[in-house]
């Protein structure tokens, strides 16, 4: 993979991984478009996807380092005070992974097949847009509680975990679905944002390990362009997290739906008129 393509895809991944517009959908559409333009498969696509996802995962760790520190401190024997809430939080985050794993693994074969069906991917980006538009009444005028951790209950964890599992489908935004599910379940915007991304850390890491388990040679194919792309993706992702946090606080989360509709419409037209599936 050349430096220009690697850096372009890294910026795309960094922006779309956390903004609610589906990074997997964007990467699938762009990679299909590049392959159509060049007439040959994109080299090292799997390995590249894994490494840039790890780059953006590290961005989440850095952005939520204080929250992660509190959760890790709660594991210490004899810790008291606010660690009771942190332990409950950690327990609910752990439980959320079960529906994520069950739903995600069940849909994984379908998701893999869809990566080569760009018209379907574009259609699911449109579905993401519909779900984002439905959050409009959930963010307007909502006030965040002083302690967002106290809002995360077992039921809400299972709902958000299920939404995260569904997001394995290319075109369905992980952040979009989980935040929308959290808002629908009654979480405040800030709590939904916080829990969505804390849930993403073990999920992204687990998905990367799963892919590497099936393709152990993937990382051996990587070169400097991919390593540089991981760094760029992580830096851009930090900016995207700040943008998303601000739009949620301002009650403008639903505005991303119009972007999703535009990408979906363009993708369907481009790949349909060009003979795509």
In words, what does this structure look like?
It contains twelve helices and no strands. It is an all-alpha fold and 277 residues long. The chain has helices spanning 3-18, 23-38, 45-63, 65-73, 83-114, 118-133, 136-139, 154-166, 174-184, 189-214, 224-249, 256-273. Helix 1 (3-18) crosses helix 3 (45-63). The longest helix has 32 residues, at 83-114. It is 74% helix and 0% strand. It has one domain.
Q: What's this entry about, in short?
A:
The chain has about 280 residues and is mainly α.
Describe the SSE topology:
Blueprint: H1 3-18, H2 23-38, H3 45-63, H4 65-73, H5 83-114, H6 118-133, H7 136-139, H8 154-166, H9 174-184, H10 189-214, H11 224-249, H12 256-273
Helix pairs in contact: 1-2, 1-3, 1-11, 2-6, 3-10, 3-11, 5-8, 5-10, 6-12, 8-9, 9-10
- Percentage of β-strand residues: under 5%
Overall shape: it is globular
State the separation between the terminal residues, measured CA to CA.
25 Å
Our Rg estimate from Cα atoms comes to 19 Å
* Mean pLDDT, all residues: 85
Count every helix, treating DSSP H or I runs of 4 or more residues as helices: 12
Element-level helix/strand string: HHHHHHHHHHHH
Largest sheet: none
Helix content: over 70%
Please give the domain count.
Answer: 1
Count the strands? 0
Structural class: mainly alpha
Low-confidence stretches: none
Key attributes of the depicted protein:
single chain, 277 residues, mainly alpha, 12 helices, 74% helix, globular
């Amino acid at each position: 993979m050349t430096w220009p393509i690697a850096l372009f895809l890294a910026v795309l991944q960094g922006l779309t991984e956390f903004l609610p517009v589906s990074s997997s959908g964007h990467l699938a559409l762009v990679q299909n478009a590049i392959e159509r333009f060049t007439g040959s498969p994109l080299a090292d696509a799997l390995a590249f996807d894994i490494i840039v996802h790890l780059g953006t995962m590290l961005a989440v760790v850095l952005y939520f380092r204080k929250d992660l520190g509190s959760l890790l401190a709660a594991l210490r024997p004899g810790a008291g005070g606010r660690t009771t809430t942190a332990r409950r939080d950690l327990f609910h985050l752990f439980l959320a992974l079960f529906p994520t794993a069950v739903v995600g693994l069940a849909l994984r074969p379908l998701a893999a097949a869809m990566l080569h069906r760009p018209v379907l991917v574009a259609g699911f980006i449109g579905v993401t847009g519909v779900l984002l538009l439905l959050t409009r009444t959930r963010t307007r005028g909502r006030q965040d509680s002083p302690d967002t951790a106290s809002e995360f209950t077992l039921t809400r964890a299972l709902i958000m975990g299920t939404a995260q599992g569904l997001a394995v489908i290319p075109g369905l935004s992980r952040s979009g679905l989980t935040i929308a599910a959290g808002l629908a379940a009654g979480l405040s915007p800030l709590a939904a944002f916080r829990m969505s991304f804390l849930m993403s850390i073990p999920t992204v890491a687990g998905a990367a390990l799963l892919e590497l388990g099936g393709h152990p040679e993937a990382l051996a194919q990587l070169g400097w362009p991919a390593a540089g792309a991981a760094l760029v993706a992580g830096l851009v992702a930090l900016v995207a997290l700040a943008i998303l946090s601000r739009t949620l606080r301002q009650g403008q989360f639903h505005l991303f739906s119009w972007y999703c509709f535009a990408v979906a419409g363009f993708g369907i037209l481009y790949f349909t008129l060009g003979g795509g599936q």
